[in-house]
């Protein structure tokens, strides 16, 4: 059985191959409401599950009024630690590639506010919601610890997804001693929550020991195995469908307790169960970006060359798991310095476990680093762009390896030109607009690594001249439905309109993880290789067939384009795929491909996307209100498959940068440990009025090493560089250096350096 989702041909005919700005193939489905998201599924006989969450941050649940909840009309079951059936995996075990401990009602402990403490299952959403309210929990309360000061400091064994916590190159003490200019500065970033527009959702249906789940997921085949593991069934017994995601940002790549509870309820009740997290429950059991305190010490010689770059980061994590934001690692690969030292510390607090969130590490780390670099340029009396050029690294500063490609110099030049950076005064508070607002210009460097995840794909050329291409990829809005189809079309020598692209379900070849900005590179390479494999098989058939004009040409001697194979030496000799297949008696020919990188290149080269972001802000001198009025980014990310979608990704990242710099912050009540702004009214993100005219320039870059396509990634790099650019522009406008994000007006007007 396959319930794979197939997208129709694009509605607007455009160029068919990589490099063309093909319009989103799923756009029409989305704007007309025809795209089916997880929660849009309503299997017959479905029940609704609502999670009751803890209102305390630390302690024990001492009672739940299960009777009252069960007595409510429509409520069919209440699941608590007392009656929760066993799982095949311990929720407190770390399992899988991105192993996370989860909360699945394993006991009565409360480890953070909004932790699941019970699940109510009912015939209607209203009944389930009311049942959850009637549980009226009582607690044994222990004091909550939610701040750096209150939490328990420890040395993390690893940061991010398994990276070493500390790094040193050169003699950092000697570097500091040799400096003629010094910067010693500390930046703080708050806890941030993913807040995808589509909340986490699960529709689960059991059929014997087979499970079908509709749930938004960034790592479909990997997650299928994890889900199967918790329920003790083989992965093949799980069909996970995730054709569309309303955003993921990392939170939908990892396992969480609510999902497991919804599936468990469906098994207990032997009926389908739907669970959709309300917005406030997005602030607890499904991950976030941990808070950081980052101490940077930079030393420079008289000419403004770095002699020492020291970056020490402390990040919060939960009391029961070890994800630490790898913020200091942002200082490894960007600026040349004879001595680099980075360290990470952890602080355990009574907050849900953080996890990967859009540019994990790089976002927070580059915010602090780019501000510190701005401070360093000022200390040396050098323009911030010139300072970055003086410290440009021709090889990877951390490893000494050559870069696979690095067009950052071009990004600086093109970005500065488009912005009009030349002539920027060095000192702050030099520019005003006609309304008397203070005007400032700032910049930041952007950088992001180019990971690839194991991926596979299948391509089937059909006798009607079309092709079916398949990979279990995930499109969380980034455009995989379109860009991957473009890559597949090129691999097969077909117009994209002739490509039927199946994706988004776990019964297809494993398309890897849509994360780390590596999905296009990983699944794309697999699709490309599957296509060329299918063409090679077709060429074998044609060149061995005496009746074909290609007879005897040999595999290497044909070229695939426009649905035909051409003799390389003689263009007049060609034949259509359909004709080759028809005469051979084959209905189709199939190819398979994987998306791995050449291990030699991976070993020998440092691989990153780069960029430069320039920002203009205007600040009201009396009210401290900040408007970002211009934002220009220039990015070099290898081969661009679809410039329209790539720009859209970069805009999204830069908007996230505005959000990080000026808006986002989870505010914890220090006494209760609860997040007080767990909704989109109080947890601020930018709206249209906050976003200026933006430019994202795509800088040409040929990367012969990163993968056969030369594709890097554009998903996350936009947020890096942008935060620093805006913060630096605010300093340039006001003379006030705010070192605690987000930069809100109170921090500006209360600063003694901000005279009206
Ligand atoms: Mo992401 S944090 O790579 O989805």
Write a brief caption for the model.
This protein is of the alpha+beta class.
Q: What report would you give on this structure?
A:
Among the domains are: 175 residues, Aldehyde oxidase/xanthine dehydrogenase, molybdopterin binding domain (Aldehyde Oxidoreductase, domain 4, 2-Layer Sandwich), CATH 3.30.365.10; 235 residues, 2-Layer Sandwich (Aldehyde Oxidoreductase, domain 4). The chain is 24% helix and 23% strand. The protein contains 16 helices and 29 strands. The strands form six sheets. A seven-stranded mixed beta sheet has the order 4-6-2-14-11-12-13, with helices on both faces. Strands 8, 9, 10, 15, 16 and 17 form a six-stranded mixed beta sheet that branches. A five-stranded mixed beta sheet has the order 1-22-21-20-26. Strand 12, helix 5 and strand 13 form a beta-alpha-beta unit. The longest helix is centred in the C-terminal third of the chain and has 25 residues. It is globular, with a radius of gyration of 27 Å. About 1% of the residues have low confidence. The site of dioxothiomolybdenum(VI) ion has 11 residues, from loops.
């Amino acid at each position: 059985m396959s319930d794979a989702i197939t997208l129709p041909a694009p509605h607007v005919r455009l160029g068919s191959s990589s490099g063309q700005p093909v319009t989103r193939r799923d756009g029409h489905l989305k704007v007309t409401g025809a795209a089916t998201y997880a929660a849009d599924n309503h299997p017959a006989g479905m029940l609704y599950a609502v999670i009751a969450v803890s209102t305390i941050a630390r302690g024990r649940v001492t009672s739940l009024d299960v009777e009252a909840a069960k007595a409510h009309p429509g409520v069919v079951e209440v699941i608590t630690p007392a009656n929760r059936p066993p799982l095949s995996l311990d929720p407190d075990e770390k399992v899988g590639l991105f192993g996370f401990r989860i909360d699945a009602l394993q006991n009565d402990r409360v480890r953070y506010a909004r932790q699941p403490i019970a699940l109510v299952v009912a015939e209607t959403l209203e009944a389930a919601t009311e049942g959850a309210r009637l549980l009226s929990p009582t607690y044994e309360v222990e004091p909550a610890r939610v701040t750096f000061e209150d939490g328990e400091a420890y040395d993390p064994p690893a940061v991010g997804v398994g990276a070493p916590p500390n790094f040193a190159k050169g003699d950092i003490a000697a570097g500091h001693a040799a400096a003629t200019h010094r910067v010693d500065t500390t930046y703080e970033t708050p806890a941030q929550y993913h807040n995808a527009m589509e909340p986490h959702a699960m529709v689960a249906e059991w059929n014997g020991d087979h499970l079908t789940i509709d749930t938004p997921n960034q790592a479909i085949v990997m997650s299928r195995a994890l889900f199967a593991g918790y329920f003790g069934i083989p992965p093949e017994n799980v069909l996970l469908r995730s054709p569309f995601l309303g955003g993921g940002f990392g939170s939908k790549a990892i396992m969480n307790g609510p999902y497991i509870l919804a599936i468990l309820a469906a098994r207990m009740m032997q009926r389908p169960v739907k669970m959709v997290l309300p917005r406030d429950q997005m602030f607890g059991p499904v991950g976030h970006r941990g808070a950081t305190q980052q101490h940077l010490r930079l030393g420079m010689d008289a000419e403004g060359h770095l002699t020492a770059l020291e970056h020490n980061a402390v990040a919060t994590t939960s009391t029961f798991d070890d994800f630490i934001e790898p913020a200091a690692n942002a200082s490894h690969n960007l600026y040349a310095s004879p001595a680099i030292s980075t360290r990470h510390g952890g602080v355990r607090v009574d907050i849900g476990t953080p996890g990967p969130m859009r540019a994990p590490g790089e976002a927070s780390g580059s915010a602090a680093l780019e501000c510190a670099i701005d401070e360093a340029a000022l200390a040396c009396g050098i323009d911030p762009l010139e300072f970055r050029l003086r410290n440009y690294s021709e090889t990877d500063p951390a490893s000494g390896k050559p870069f696979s490609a690095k067009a950052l110099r071009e990004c600086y030049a093109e970005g500065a030109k488009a912005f009009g950076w030349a002539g920027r005064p060095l000192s702050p508070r030099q520019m005003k607009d006609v309304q008397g607002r203070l005007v400032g210009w700032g910049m930041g460097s952007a950088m992001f690594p180019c990971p690839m995840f194991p991926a596979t794909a299948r391509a089937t050329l059909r006798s009607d001249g079309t092709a079916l291409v398949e990979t279990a990829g995930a499109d969380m809005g980034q455009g995989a439905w379109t860009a991957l189809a473009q890559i597949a079309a090129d691999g097969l020598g077909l117009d994209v309109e002739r490509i039927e692209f199946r994706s988004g379900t776990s019964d297809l070849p494993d398309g890897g993880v849509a994360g780390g900005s590596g999905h296009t590179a990983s699944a794309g390479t697999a699709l490309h290789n599957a296509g060329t494999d299918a063409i090679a098989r077709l060429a074998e058939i044609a060149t061995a067939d005496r009746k074909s004009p290609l007879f005897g040409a040999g595999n290497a001697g044909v070229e695939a384009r426009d649905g035909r194979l051409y003799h390389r030496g003689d263009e007049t000799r060609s034949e259509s795929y359909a004709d080759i297949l028809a005469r051979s008696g084959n209905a189709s020919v199939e190819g398979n491909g994987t998306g791995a990188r050449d291990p030699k290149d991976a070993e020998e080269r440092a691989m990153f996307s780069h960029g430069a972001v320039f920002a203009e802000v205007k600040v009201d001198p009396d009210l401290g209100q900040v408007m970002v009025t211009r934002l220009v980014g220039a990015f070099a990310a290898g081969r661009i498959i679809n410039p329209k979608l790539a720009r859209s990704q970069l805009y999204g990242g830069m908007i996230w940068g505005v959000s990080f710099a000026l808006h986002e912050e989870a505010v914890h009540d220090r006494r209760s440990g609860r997040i007080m702004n767990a909704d989109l009214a109080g947890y601020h993100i930018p709206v249209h009025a906050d976003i200026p005219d933006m430019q994202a320039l795509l800088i040409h870059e040929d990367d012969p090493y990163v993968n056969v396509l030369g594709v890097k990634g554009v998903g996350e790099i936009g947020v890096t560089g942008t935060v620093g650019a805006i913060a630096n522009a605010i300093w340039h406008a006001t003379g006030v250096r705010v070192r605690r994000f987000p930069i809100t007006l109170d921090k500006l007007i209360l600063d003694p350096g901000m005279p009206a």
